[in-house]
Amino acid sequence: MQSTTDPEAVAETVSGGAIDCVISDYQMPEMSGLDVFAAVRNVDPEIPFILFTDTGSETIASEAISAGISDYVIKNTIKEQYTLLATKITTYVDRRRAEAVAARTQQQLHELAENTNDVLFIFSADWNELEYINSRCTELFGQSVAALHKNSAAFLEPVHPDDVDDLKNTMQKASEGNSQQVEYRIQVDSEKWVESHAQPIVDETGSVVRVAGFTHDITERKQRELELRAKNERLERFASIVSHDLRNPLSVADGYLELARKEADSDHLETVARALDRMETLISELLVLAREGQEVTETKPVSLDKLVLSSWNNIDQQNATLHTETNVEILADEIRLGQVFENFLRNAIEHGGDAVNINVGLLDDETGFYVENDGDPIPENKKGQIFETGFTTNTQGTGFGLAIIKRIVNAHGWSISVTDSHHGGTRFEITGPEFLDQ
């Protein structure tokens, strides 16, 4: 609280910005209370100003009220007048502070709305009146805020003719009280895809009184979806060619090989058999490689321990040994992740020897898991190539195993890296899986 006996200093004090309310007498030597009021309102037009004076003239009271004085209290010797003054001060100060908070909040909401990439809107329940929309509508829909307020139905004008009915049906469902999400095309300078979300707002009776929502540009996302769909279609065509057009002549060759074996016994036929087996392996792994690079869209909780053991039982273990410490669940595509572990385990035996020791465990920082072995480490100058399709250091290998692993890992949105293991062999680390609480 600040006080002064110099009425001319009041306005300057108020301009400092730390005053919530001014209480002034009316009759003072240098200035009247109304003069002080006029000076104060020049620097702060909204500040509460109360006259607390001995002068009880109706003329002065009328003049004060006409000038815009917040309140006028006549001094009196009775205690209640001071209680009344305190009450009025509290009321005006609380109101001023509440208005200041509301103004700041409104300004913050305005800044938020005007600095988002989304179009924010509020319509009446029947969509006939636009109550609010931010200026992003001009950039996205090519329509000004003023134009849309003047004609709320104009927001349908840029919508692609083939999508108008779907959008109207969505609007009707929102008006009926159902939350909605819809994708549609708009035509402004070029064709764009947008996505709108609409949320009905209801009153205490449950009736929809308005609809609020937002719209954002999803053109890039739709383009990626179309590109991914085209890529997957190409992969499926490729897989079909590999599966049918290559396997059919391979089956014919197998048949004639069996006939040849019945007619003659030759080491050359065994060479042919091994070549045909290798071709079958190549075809199988090409099919996996083509299909496993597709994005993972459906995941479920998977027990890492059980999946590793299941994968181990699906391969020729020879004399290799497996140790696991992975008692956790993660979100994954179980079949495709099983393919990862099968390839890891086969690769370890293929390159580390049939008596190799393989360890599967969790990373110390709990960001993922590792698979390591005690075989020969990968040469430093080869580590950058090992995930390339067809690369192998084993003449009997196809070079597809690690490429398949990388594709499946990336399809899950995870990352894979290679380093030397603690036992002198190779260690693969996969980071990014989501671990589930058990």
Automatic annotation (TrEMBL):
<keyword id="KW-0808">Transferase</keyword>
<dbReference type="GO" id="GO:0000155">
    <property type="term" value="F:phosphorelay sensor kinase activity"/>
</dbReference>
<dbReference type="InterPro" id="IPR035965">
    <property type="entry name" value="PAS-like_dom_sf"/>
</dbReference>
<keyword id="KW-0597">Phosphoprotein</keyword>
<feature type="domain" description="PAS">
    <location>
        <begin position="105"/>
        <end position="178"/>
    </location>
</feature>
<dbReference type="InterPro" id="IPR004358">
    <property type="entry name" value="Sig_transdc_His_kin-like_C"/>
</dbReference>
<dbReference type="InterPro" id="IPR000700">
    <property type="entry name" value="PAS-assoc_C"/>
</dbReference>
<dbReference type="InterPro" id="IPR005467">
    <property type="entry name" value="His_kinase_dom"/>
</dbReference>
<dbReference type="Pfam" id="PF02518">
    <property type="entry name" value="HATPase_c"/>
</dbReference>
<dbReference type="InterPro" id="IPR036097">
    <property type="entry name" value="HisK_dim/P_sf"/>
</dbReference>
<dbReference type="Pfam" id="PF08447">
    <property type="entry name" value="PAS_3"/>
</dbReference>
<keyword id="KW-0902">Two-component regulatory system</keyword>
<feature type="modified residue" description="4-aspartylphosphate">
    <location>
        <position position="25"/>
    </location>
</feature>
<feature type="domain" description="Response regulatory">
    <location>
        <begin position="1"/>
        <end position="90"/>
    </location>
</feature>
<feature type="domain" description="Histidine kinase">
    <location>
        <begin position="241"/>
        <end position="436"/>
    </location>
</feature>
<dbReference type="InterPro" id="IPR003661">
    <property type="entry name" value="HisK_dim/P_dom"/>
</dbReference>
<dbReference type="InterPro" id="IPR001789">
    <property type="entry name" value="Sig_transdc_resp-reg_receiver"/>
</dbReference>
<dbReference type="InterPro" id="IPR013655">
    <property type="entry name" value="PAS_fold_3"/>
</dbReference>
<dbReference type="Pfam" id="PF00072">
    <property type="entry name" value="Response_reg"/>
</dbReference>
<keyword id="KW-0418">Kinase</keyword>
<feature type="domain" description="PAC">
    <location>
        <begin position="178"/>
        <end position="230"/>
    </location>
</feature>
<dbReference type="InterPro" id="IPR003594">
    <property type="entry name" value="HATPase_dom"/>
</dbReference>
<dbReference type="InterPro" id="IPR001610">
    <property type="entry name" value="PAC"/>
</dbReference>
<dbReference type="InterPro" id="IPR011006">
    <property type="entry name" value="CheY-like_superfamily"/>
</dbReference>
<dbReference type="Pfam" id="PF00512">
    <property type="entry name" value="HisKA"/>
</dbReference>
<dbReference type="InterPro" id="IPR000014">
    <property type="entry name" value="PAS"/>
</dbReference>
<dbReference type="InterPro" id="IPR036890">
    <property type="entry name" value="HATPase_C_sf"/>
</dbReference>
<dbReference type="InterPro" id="IPR050736">
    <property type="entry name" value="Sensor_HK_Regulatory"/>
</dbReference>
<protein>
    <recommendedName>
        <fullName>histidine kinase</fullName>
        <ecNumber>2.7.13.3</ecNumber>
    </recommendedName>
</protein>
